[in-house]
Structures are given as C-alpha cells and as structure tokens.
Amino acid sequence: MNRSVKIAIGSVFVGILVLAIKTLAWWLTGSVALLSDALESIVNVATALAALMAVHISSQPPDADHPFGHHKAEYFSAVLEGVLIVVAAVLILREAWGAWQEPAPIEQVGLGLIINLSAGVLNAVWCWVLLREGRKLKSPALVADGKHLLTDVFSSAGVALGVGAAVLTGWLWLDALLAALVAVNILWSGWQVIRSSVGGLMDEAVPEEDLSEMRTIISANAEGAVEAHDLRSRRAGQAVFLEFHLVVPGEMSVVAAHDICDRIEHALQDAIDGCRVTIHVEPEHKAKHSGIVVL
C-alpha cells in the first residue's frame, strides 16, 4: 500500500468523524446553517471514498490494456468531487429557502458551536496534510480533496460567527442567509475543482517553470548532439510525459546517440519525479538551429 492510498484511507475516517460531530451540533441547535455544514461533510465522505478508489487505481502498474498506466483515474475522481460539491450546494440552498420562509429558534447555541468548531479544527489539520502530501506526491485527487476541505474550514468558521450573531441580535433570518452563502461558496469550490481536473484530462502542458527546468536539464546533458527541438509535455496524475526530437551528427553511431539519450533521460528522471521520457533521434540535416537549442 503506497502513501497516497494510506492518506486517502485517512480522509475517509476523518470525513466520517467530522460528519458525526457536525450532525450532533445541528441536532442540538436546530440551526439550518449548521445543517448546511453537516450536508457538506456528507460530500466530504463521498469524495474521500472517490479519491481512495482513484489513487488505488492510478497506483496500479501499466498493463496490456493501459500501457501508459492508470494515472488519469485521479482526474475522474476530482471531476466527480466537483459534481458532488455542486449537488451539496443545491441541497443546502433548498434548506436555506425553507428556513428563510419559516425561521426557527436556535437552541443550545454555545454547546453546538463548540462542537461544530472542534470539527472545523480537525478539518483544518487534515486539510493541511492533504495539500502538503498531495502536492509532494503529485496527486490531483488528494489536492482536490484538500482544497475542498479548505473551503469547508472557512465555511465552518463563517457559519459559527453568523449563528452567534443571529442569536445575539435575534435576527433568525441570518441563519438562512448564512446557509445560502455557504452554498454559493461551495459552488465556487466545485467549479475550481472541475476546471483544474478537465485540464488534466485534456492533456494540458506542464507549467512554464517546469518546462524551463526541463529545457535546462536537456541542454546541460546533450553534449555531442546538435540540438533538441519540438519539446512537448503533459501531466497525468503523478506522471509527467515528455517527448522531443534530438538531432545528432549524421556520422554518429547508434550506440553513441543512444548514450546521449540515456544521459538526458536519467537526468530528467532524477530531477522530476514520475518523468516518462520519449526521445526521437534525427540526423543533422533535420536541425532547425545551430548549437544545443531546446525549443
């Protein structure tokens, strides 16, 4: 079991615990804003399960049917998470509309808020773990889960302040308004998650700073070649796919050209985790410039 899978399993258990705590807070108070917070935690559990399935599938080695691996499974999980976030937002808006029309008194406010805030603290700690480890492991599913939890942390803090204000002022309609604001915030979070995941599914190139690093590594390790050009890249989960053309002198032997390719490939793999390199060797008359130029 790799580290990504272990963290994903942890997310499931944390999500269930937080859901139980927030449900208790809602049950004690009857606040629709706290109910919206609990509904979002149901999505957290569902998305944690989806992330667990995704990182498990993506960690499987390539096979005959999937020779490039299963890395894109994580993007499907992230898209599913975005869709579930939108569903949660719609459910919250429905509850908020009912509470707006018929405001209800909030009971045991102090105890309920303390319980709800304890769930928010737990979410904040786990959110930090997910974002740190997800970025380190290049896992879109874990990062998406962490970003959603970060939204949940801010929502919980805002809900706690708002419910307190509603009780102190007697403006019970604030409870419904807060629930609606939580829903809007969740919708924005879901859109961000879906947008970033679609980029991965569409074979979006790696960021320019990463491409610049790749060019530098190729230039530093291409001694004996004429130039490198037509550099193309894409990211799929934890893997980075890079391909380019390497121009060598026409009289160079296959063995010597292969040695240059091996040197470049090993340097890239040492510097970039999960880098998969494909190099197409071309004769000198295919050169577009002089010197080791990486385009």
How would you describe the overall organization of this protein?
The protein is mostly helical and 295 residues long. It is built from eight helices and three strands. It has helices at residues 3-29, 32-58, 73-101, 109-136, 140-169, 173-201, 208-220, 254-271, and strands spanning 227-236, 239-247, 275-282. Strands 1-2-3 form a three-stranded mixed β-sheet, with helices on one face. The radius of gyration is 25 Å and the shape is elongated. The two termini are 40 Å apart.
Fold topology:
Layout: H1 3-29, H2 32-58, H3 73-101, H4 109-136, H5 140-169, H6 173-201, H7 208-220, E1 227-236, E2 239-247, H8 254-271, E3 275-282
Parallel strand pairs: 2-3
Antiparallel strand pairs: 1-2
Helix pairs in contact: 1-2, 1-4, 2-3, 2-5, 2-6, 3-5, 3-6, 4-5, 5-6, 7-8
Whole-number radius of gyration?
25 Å
H/E topology pattern: HHHHHHHEEHE
> What is the CA-CA span between the terminal residues?
40 Å
Largest sheet: 3 strands, mixed
The low-confidence runs, each spanning 5 or more residues with pLDDT under 50, are: none
Q: Strands across the major sheet, in which order?
A: 1-2-3
Query: How many β strands by DSSP?
Result: 3
What fraction, in percent, of the residue positions are helical? 55-70%
Given the helix and strand composition, which structural class is it? mainly alpha
Q: Quickly count the helices.
A: 8
